């Protein structure tokens, strides 16, 4: 038994997931460059002011897009924590 509607939805989801992975890869390439720059310049790995501003900005965007702002914040915090981990590793090299 085949459900063509479900298959189309899943294909769209798969395409979106692929795009998200590519976007995250590009984002991490840039944040790794930021981490190297911070390490060379002796700057701290974390920037709490920038993080809070980004979270507030993305929560507002999420709300406008009818996405749960709590979810968007959790997602961004996960990314930020990973970026900071990379920046701290760059400082140790």
TrEMBL record:
<dbReference type="InterPro" id="IPR010951">
    <property type="entry name" value="CM_bact"/>
</dbReference>
<dbReference type="InterPro" id="IPR002701">
    <property type="entry name" value="CM_II_prokaryot"/>
</dbReference>
<dbReference type="InterPro" id="IPR036263">
    <property type="entry name" value="Chorismate_II_sf"/>
</dbReference>
<dbReference type="InterPro" id="IPR051331">
    <property type="entry name" value="Chorismate_mutase-related"/>
</dbReference>
<protein>
    <recommendedName>
        <fullName>chorismate mutase</fullName>
        <ecNumber>5.4.99.5</ecNumber>
    </recommendedName>
</protein>
<dbReference type="InterPro" id="IPR036979">
    <property type="entry name" value="CM_dom_sf"/>
</dbReference>
<dbReference type="Pfam" id="PF01817">
    <property type="entry name" value="CM_2"/>
</dbReference>
<keyword id="KW-0413">Isomerase</keyword>
<feature type="domain" description="Chorismate mutase">
    <location>
        <begin position="1"/>
        <end position="91"/>
    </location>
</feature>
<dbReference type="GO" id="GO:0004106">
    <property type="term" value="F:chorismate mutase activity"/>
</dbReference>
């Amino acid at each position: 038994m085949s459900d063509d509607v479900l298959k189309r939805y899943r294909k769209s989801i798969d395409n979106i997931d692929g795009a998200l992975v590519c976007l995250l890869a590009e984002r991490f390439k840039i944040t790794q460059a930021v981490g190297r720059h911070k390490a060379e310049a002796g700057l701290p790995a974390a920037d709490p002011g920038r993080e809070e501003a980004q979270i507030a900005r993305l929560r507002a965007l999420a709300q406008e897009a009818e996405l749960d702002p709590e979810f968007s914040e959790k997602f961004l915090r996960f990314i930020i924590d990973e970026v900071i981990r990379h920046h701290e590793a760059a400082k140790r090299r």
